[in-house]
UniProtKB/TrEMBL annotation:
Gene3D superfamilies: Naphthalene 1,2-dioxygenase Alpha Subunit, Chain A, domain 1 (3.90.380.10), Rieske [2Fe-2S] iron-sulphur domain (2.102.10.10). Keywords: 2Fe-2S, Dioxygenase, Iron, Iron-sulfur, Metal-binding, Oxidoreductase. One of its GO terms (molecular function) is dioxygenase activity. This is Aromatic ring-hydroxylating dioxygenase subunit alpha. The lineage of its organism: Bacteria, Pseudomonadati, Pseudomonadota, Betaproteobacteria, Burkholderiales. The keyword Isomerase does not apply.
Length: 345
């Protein structure tokens, strides 16, 4: 390989890793719980952006990059005006689509009517604000497609949100590794049974892949799913003993979003297929007996992942139990490579 080729390869690899670290473009992401955003503007860092979010009088959330197009002052220190925000520094008003609608200090200047500010479309569902991480300003985003467990009336769910120190991709790896439940979570009331060794297999789905134990189902944490519906989400189920109350298996839906290079926004919805009186019984039981146990299990994951070095994935010696992890990593890398080829960085 020539020096020039080696340099290009290194530059491409650096660009691919930058894309993956910040988060893929033109994709929906969960960015914060709904109660983070009120009428007063709030500034959040997500997906390589500094963002300002606020609500209008009807409660609709809006999002712009947190930089005034005039002098770069934070719009989050400004005044919300419905679907507009006025910069607190010089009063420049920016609409939620990124268009400057008023420059009070210099009416009619060329800044008025231009669209220099990055704007992002939001959707709100299941207690969370989702953002379409568009590579440029667009008028309409694609639909937000959530898994059945978050849209069907047959299911009930609770949101669990936390922020972990570490790369969001390590959280994805953790969910695509069912075998860790047998060891790390062996004291859990719901993960103390089943074989301590297993063979795994991959099964393609319409939107992704399921990684599952061969010959063991509905016993423990026996499978996990990664899906791309324009939103990347993961799913798993854990069978409950009778003491867990009425309903089907206990399910978890996960979405993970980079806040920065080594901090992740971690969203888990705990779900159960229940209806009628069973729904009320399950929700009461969850809040009064089960939620603390689930937080304890999640805390075990957090402690391990936060202790992993940023380059831990460069020190690995993977084996058959890790095929699900490598499959998802390759898919994410493929998407980042395609994004780079389109000239989107």
């Amino acid at each position: 390989m020539t020096t020039a080729n080696a340099t290009n390869t290194a530059n491409n690899e650096e660009a691919i890793q930058k894309i993956l670290t910040d988060g893929l473009k033109d994709l929906w992401y969960a960015i914060c719980p709904s109660d983070f955003v009120k009428e007063t503007p709030v500034s959040l860092r997500r997906l390589g952006h500094k963002l300002v979010l606020w609500r209008d009088a009807e409660g609709n959330p809006h999002c712009l990059e947190d930089h005034c197009p005039h002098r770069g002052a934070p719009l989050s220190f400004g005044i919300p005006l419905g679907n507009k925000i006025a910069c607190g520094y010089h009063g420049v008003e920016v609409r939620s689509d990124g268009t400057v609608v008023s420059v009070p200090g210099s009416p009619g200047c060329k800044l008025e009517g231009s669209r220099p500010t990055r704007a992002f479309h939001l959707k709100e569902s299941n207690g969370v604000i989702f953002m379409f991480n568009s590579s440029e300003n667009i008028d309409e985003p694609p639909p937000l497609v959530l898994p059945e467990q978050l849209v069907s009336d047959e299911y009930s769910s609770f949101l669990c949100y936390t922020e972990w120190r570490g790369d969001y991709r390590y959280v994805i790896d953790n969910v695509m590794d069912p075998m860790h439940g047998t060891y790390l979570h062996k004291q859990s009331h719901s993960m103390s049974v089943g074989s301590r060794s297993a063979q795994f297999q991959l099964r393609d789905t319409d939107h992704g892949v399921i990684f599952e134990k061969a010959g063991q189902r509905d016993v423990n944490f026996d499978w996990s799913e990664w899906a791309d519906t324009g939103l990347h989400w993961l799913r798993l189920e854990i069978p409950y003993p009778k003491t867990g109350g009425p309903g089907g298996n206990f399910g978890i839906i996960g979405c993970y979003t980079p806040i920065g290079p080594n901090i992740a926004a971690v969203f888990h919805w705990r779900t159960r297929k229940v209806s009628g009186w069973q729904r009320d019984a399950w929700r009461f039981l969850y809040k009064n007996r089960l939620e603390a146990r689930h937080w304890a299990v999640l805390e075990q994951d957090r402690v391990v992942l936060e202790q992993m070095e940023p380059d831990a994935n460069q020190r690995e010696h993977l084996y058959q139990h890790d095929v699900g992890i490598t499959r998802v990593r390759r898919q994410l890398r493929k998407l980042a490579t395609e994004q780079l080829a389109r000239g989107v960085k």
